[in-house]
Amino acid sequence: MFPRFVAALCLAGCTRATTEQPTEPTTDPVRPTVPVEVTLVELEATPAEPVVGDDVQVTVVLDDVALQATPVALDSDAPAVLPLPDAITVQAGSMQASTTARATAAGEVTLTAGLDDAVESVQLTVAPAPVVPVLVEVSPADGLAATSTSVTLRGTDFEEDVQVEVGSTKASCTWISSELLDCELPANGGVAASVDVTVVGSGGSDTLVEGFTYTGVVADPGASFFCNLQWPPTTVTKAGVATEAIFGRVYVEGATDASSKAASSVIGQVGTGAVGSHPEQVNWAWSAMAPNPHWDFDVNDDEYQGVLMVSDAGAYDYATRFSLDGGLTFTYCDGNGSDDGFDPKLAGQLTVK
Questions:
Q1: 25 confidence band (pLDDT: 50, 70, 90)
Q2: Would residue 23 count as lying in a domain?
Q3: What is the percent of the chain with per-residue pLDDT over 70, rounded to a whole number?
Q4: What is the largest CA-CA distance in the chain?
Q5: Which domain holds residue 310?
Q6: DSSP string covering 108-138
Q7: CA-CA distance, 350 to 334, in Å (whole number)?
Q8: Both 334 and 232 in a single domain?
Q9: How far is CA 228 from CA 4, 13, 45, 91, 251, in A?
């Protein structure tokens, strides 16, 4: 009976011993991180041909992904041309980093990047920014259509290789400064015309509309027209000092004899040139004349007055000229009047001391 009792007790309060197997881990054990050494392999700069004012993107490239923030030293050997920060940082998880620098002047520049013993460099040439010239004045503003005319162009931002076009023809010019050009405008085949003058720079162009007038000569104005150099036949002044008033008279049938005021269709000018030269054949320097405020315009002729100013001492001729078409064509007038054409021997005599 004992064994049965023991068996009953075991059934009531005993458990069977079992052998449990160890549980396998579900993940790999965490291992310590071993830093990966990276090195600099490339330095890039774009655009490759920048101009002043461009933003240049500078990029450093590593040979592998950085596992931690990695600073790369930067240097520019011409910071006045293209300044750079002292360093750029490649962030963890990346192989490259970029920064932007603005080109501030034209010139050669070498950019350098360094990481430990690795050094990369790139050379750039920063070109001047394209320039748009501005044309303000052409002086003188007119010249004979039958011959070339020497003029001075005034404006801003004239480059040394600036191009000048008068009408559709290129002019020959000498660069004086960024604000001055001396040019020889070609003849216009004897055709009177007002033409555009254009300056062309690296960044664009500027046009002075009808900036120059090729003037024609009225060789035979006919009986309905007369002009002269009225007074004085000779005059003396100093270099750079205006002369006394010089007077010229003009008669235009149906105009100067038809009103008690100066005829609005008339343009009068007084000019000077080399002794013995002919103003219908070579260019003289001309200045505007105005109606003489003391003149009686009820008579047939109108009288105009003006002055001359010459910068160099010497002897010169002077005369008057008048236009009825806004300055496109002129009749030239000596001391004997225009009836028999212009005679240089009858021009006024100017002495500049």
A1: low
A2: no
A3: 90
A4: 175
A5: 225-352
A6: EEEEEEEETTEEEEEEEEEBPPP---EEEEE
A7: 14
A8: yes
A9: 164, 152, 73, 89, 9
pLDDT digits (tens, 9 = 90+) for 209-230: 999 999 999 989 999 999 999 9
d(CA 292, CA 270): 13
Cα–Cα distance list, 337 to 113, 225, 286, 297, 316 (Å):
83, 10, 18, 19, 19
Q: What is the DSSP string of 253-265?
A: TTTTTS-SS--TT
How would you label 116-127 residue by residue, b for 16+ Cβ within 10 Å and e otherwise? eeeebeeebebe
Angle at Cα 263 formed by Cα 258 and Cα 265, nearest 5°? 120
Instruction: Write the CATH number for 79.
Output: 2.60.40.10
DSSP class of residue 212 equals E
pLDDT at site 219: 85
Measure the CA–CA gap between 266 and 255, rounded to whole angstroms.
Answer: 9
Residue 282 to residue 287: CA distance in whole angstroms? 16
Percent of the chain's residues with pLDDT above 90? 89
Clarify whether residues 272 and 166 are in a common domain.
Answer: no
Q: Of all helices (H) and strands (E), which one includes residue 340?
A: none
Residue type, 140: P
- Bridge partner residues of 119 (DSSP): 114
CB neighbourhood size of 344 (10 A): 17
| Phi-psi label, residue 3: left if phi above 0, alpha if psi -120 to 50, beta otherwise | alpha
| Lookup: tokens for 153 | 């162009």
Q: Which of 126, 134, 113, 130 is nearest to 42 (CA)?
A: 113
Does a structural domain hold residue 340? yes
* 311-326 mean pLDDT: 98
